[in-house]
Specification:
The chain is α/β, with parallel strands linked by helices. It is globular and about 50 Å long.
Length: 315
């Protein structure tokens, strides 16, 4: 049993996409054919869907192809018109971005494909804001339960509905039924690797895990200085607390998996952002170039772990 988990992080999803392109190039295999389960949150959930979506001829998107989702579509997804800035008071009283660019990109890359037809099992996280509960799009469940069958585009839209950035997603099962109001699964699992482990354990296959590869999207580098935050109230904490929660959840999951899995079975590829912005919505051409530099540095500095990952997938 080989598991891939991909963190959330908005435009920073370019980093794991580049890492996966290197893995594909070196193994000579599509990512979907290298793993038995792919879990993703937010941008990682989009990648999970896109990497496993079978084309009309059965072909799959390569990870290299999906870098275009960030470099070509990213500036359209994270584009704010002057009118939107004014109407939202620069994101203070409404979501920052109109979802037109995001919805168009998801339709273009995912079409009407259903999660039950994923080439490899997927698990995509979201959060139900009306029922106040974690939500999981699971291809294994969709194959046997019509109420759990959704389009990949709907799953991707829901998992990427980051609060304050995009409005919640209202999604219905393909066959009809009650809708669910969902937001980004990053509010509880920005690193979905532990959710993936639980999925496998629930199926009684915990002892079959050969490899769990967990890919980050770059860690935050801007400290919150005590002298600055000691007097903050709700207004000042409103924006930074989201990043604090996302970072804390990701780091906790990394710690837990490091304790639960044998070193040979666990590979976590994460990097501290040194030249790129850690904003999840900085899709400027300069930052996209810098994110590519970060990914290439990660591949160099963690070359031994990348070699180990490739060897395990090639065995």
């Amino acid at each position: 049993m080989r598991i891939l988990a991909i963190d959330g992080g908005g435009i920073r999803g370019l980093i794991p996409a580049i890492v996966l392109a290197e893995v594909e190039q070196r193994t000579g295999r599509a990512i979907a054919d290298c793993f038995d389960l792919i879990a993703g949150t937010s941008t990682g959930g989009i990648l999970a869907c896109a990497l496993t979506r079978p084309g009309p001829d059965g072909s799959l998107y390569t990870a290299e192809k999906l870098t275009g989702l960030y470099e070509s579509e990213g500036p359209k997804i994270f584009h704010r018109s002057l009118l939107k800035r004014i109407e939202s008071v620069d994101g203070n009283i409404d979501e920052r971005y109109d979802d037109t660019g995001l919805n168009t990109a998801l339709r273009d890359y995912l079409g009407d494909e259903r999660i039950s037809r994923a080439r490899t099992d997927i698990l995509v996280t979201a959060y139900d804001i009306e029922r106040r509960a974690a939500w999981f799009f699971r291809s294994s469940a969709a194959r046997t339960d019509p109420t759990r069958e959704f389009t990949m585009a709907d799953a991707a839209r829901a998992t990427s509905a980051a609060p304050t950035y995009f409005e919640p997603a209202l999604v219905r099962p393909v066959g009809g039924g009650e809708p669910s109001a969902l937001v980004d699964g990053g509010v509880f699992a920005v690193n979905p690797a532990m959710c993936a482990l639980a999925e496998v354990a629930h199926a009684g296959r915990r002892d079959e895990i050969e490899l769990l590869a967990s890919l980050g999207t770059g860690s935050h580098t801007r400290p919150l200085r005590y002298a600055d935050v000691r007097g903050w109230g709700r207004l000042e904490w409103a924006a930074p607390i989201i990043d604090v929660v996302f970072d804390g959840v990701a780091d906790t999951t990394e710690f837990e998996l490091g304790q639960l899995l044998a070193p040979a079975a666990y590979v976590r590829l994460q990097t501290e952002l040194k030249v790129a912005s850690d904003n999840l919505d900085d899709a400027s051409s300069d930052n996209l170039r810098r994110l590519r530099i970060e990914a290439e540095r990660l591949l160099r500095e963690r070359s031994a772990d990348v070699d180990r990952l490739v060897a395990a997938l090639s065995a």
